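Hi all, long-time lurker, first post. I run a small reading group and we've been trying to get comfortable going from sequence to structure in the token notation. Rather than ask abstract questions, I figured I'd post a concrete chain and ask someone more experienced to write out its structure so we can walk through it together at our next meeting. Sequence below, copied exactly:
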Amino acid sequence: MKDRFWIAFLICIDLLSASSSWGLFFYVRQVQIEGQSFHADGNFWMGVLLLPLFWLLFYILQGTYHDIRRLFRLKVLNLSLAATFFGTIVLFFTLLLDDQVRAYQNYYQLTIWLFIIHLSITSFGRVLFTTILIKYIKAAGHGFKTLIIGGNERAIEIYQELLSAPNMINHFVGFLQVNGRDNLLAPQLAHLGKLPDLETVLEAQQVEEVIIAIESSDHDRLQSIIARIDNGKIRIRVLPDMYSILAGSVDMTNIYGALLIEINPDVMPYWQRAVKRLMDVVISFVALLFLIPFFIFSSVAVKLSSPGPIFFLQDRVGRDGKRFKIIKFRTMYTDAEKAGPQLSKEGDPRITPIGRFMRKTRLDEFPQFFNVLLGQMSLVGPRPERQFYIDQIVAIEPQYMHLTRVRPGITSWGQVKYGYAENVDQMLQRMKFDLIYMKNRTLALDIKIMFYTVIIVFKAQGK
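-- Answer (accepted) --
Happy to help. Here is the structure in token form:
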């Protein structure tokens, strides 16, 4: 609820700033550049009322209102500068270039004036907003709810450093005891339990940040704790000497007076995530339209290949652990899993003749475009698994839970490399590629994976 209030507050400021910017720009244009007296015509009112919506869409795609309480002045200024620069270019080619001017140089003057006016008014409003927001967060009880895991000497040092920082914005809810000896924080901070109580404490206290004060030699425990916490929403910080354990997945930063390593929650910029979702919807919608003849042909082929339904629906685990029904063309006989869950193998007698071809070419996956439109899946992302196999994978490699932070995909790097896994060992191997994808995902990488998937479809090289 707090975030919604601050988002609405900033949106109002941005709309008012954009409207004021256009009004002032229109005045400067008529009086200073064109040498006329100011008069508010239809273009003036259209710009004052409609252009703020253009800027608002620009800011949304940029991610300005995402994780709003973590805005700070320098970040706000950077966001304003980037948005104003690209937004001014768009407005120049869509609105200003068609204007009648006395000299060609007036185009440059108009563009520069629009950029300066919009950036100045927008930045002023946003800096004022950020100043109010920071003061609110620094007030007692309004900081980010923070949990410390561990109660040793190092945990005490971090706690005291953060408390003494002039810009401290953490509200410590307590600490968890890792072993029987690290209880030194108890006199200063609430003791909320032991490590097995982690999930219960995170939910009950609505924790927003976690500081893990565990020695770097305890690799296995550290990895297990991070896997239990890392849901893409909670910020995780660890001691700086653990950098070698997490090389490539974290950024070293000096956070509020204490030197900690913050695990990067998502390497893909917000605007790329917005464009990725837009691509998902547009490509899936177009694909479904063009694939109507294929769906008709495939439906007939599946129906004739063996008795049973055309489509195969199965429970899979998606984003944030939510279950959904994945849609595929049926490639196996209807009693394929009468003995319980089983993975397909090379030469599997449960696969129908047409199903064998569809699996080689991945054509059985095409109905999943419906899952993408429903928001359950993406075009590219880690492949969704059944809970039965997730339990087996997590028992061996708890890092698998990182993959449930994003929408699962129709295709993935692991799917391109391994296709259908025949056993848990192959699922673990495929998982490594999907984890690497998670730590390096970009729009360019998504496009590359889709390109290789198309090659597999045409060459029937799938497994």
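A couple of things your group might point at:
The chain has a mean pLDDT of 84.
The radius of gyration is 27 Å.
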